Amino acid sequence: NKCKELQEFNLTKILSYVEETFDNKTALTGHEAPFQAVFLPMDKQNLIQGANFGKDAISVDNLATLTQIEKKGMWNGHSPIFNVGSESLADDVEFEGMTSIAGMVINFFIAVDSDTFVGTPIS
After folding, report:
1. Which SS3 state, helix, strand or coil, does residue 23 take?
2. pTM of model > 0.90
3. Rounded CA gap, 77 and 70, in Å?
4. Cα separation of 3 and 121, whole Å?
5. What does the pLDDT look like over 15-63, one tens digit per residue?
6. CB 81 within 8 A of CB 70
7. Which helix (H) or strand (E) holds 81?
8. Alpha carbon distance 86, 35 (integer Å)
9. Helix and strand counts by DSSP (H, E) for the chain
10. b/e code 77-107 from CB counts within 10 Å (16+ = b)
11. Is the CB of residue 74 less than 8 Å from the CB of residue 33?
């Protein structure tokens, strides 16, 4: 299956790849980072659930990476990361029971309006 070959689940590897790939843009612009901020749409609650049950080692690793990168940012802290999605709707009773799908819609429109999008042929 070709999709299996292209999938990468390790968030540390994915973020390292993104930083390495766009380092040349940093060098060309003379800025500390190629982007003012990085939108990272992830279902953090799903990661937490996977990590809490301890059955999913990749969720444990990815949650640790996500927590670190939320505090530190990318490119040595010069590009903070943010995620809107379902977390922004958590206390809104109008979306009770629908925060995940509504959050994905919000994330979609933010991503579509971004200056640069990084993905894979299967993302």
Report:
1. helix
2. no
3. 10
4. 9
5. 998 898 888 776 666 778 888 889 888 877 778 887 777 667 888 899 9
6. yes
7. strand 81-82
8. 24
9. 5, 2
10. eebbbebebbeebeeeeebeeebeebbeebb
11. yes
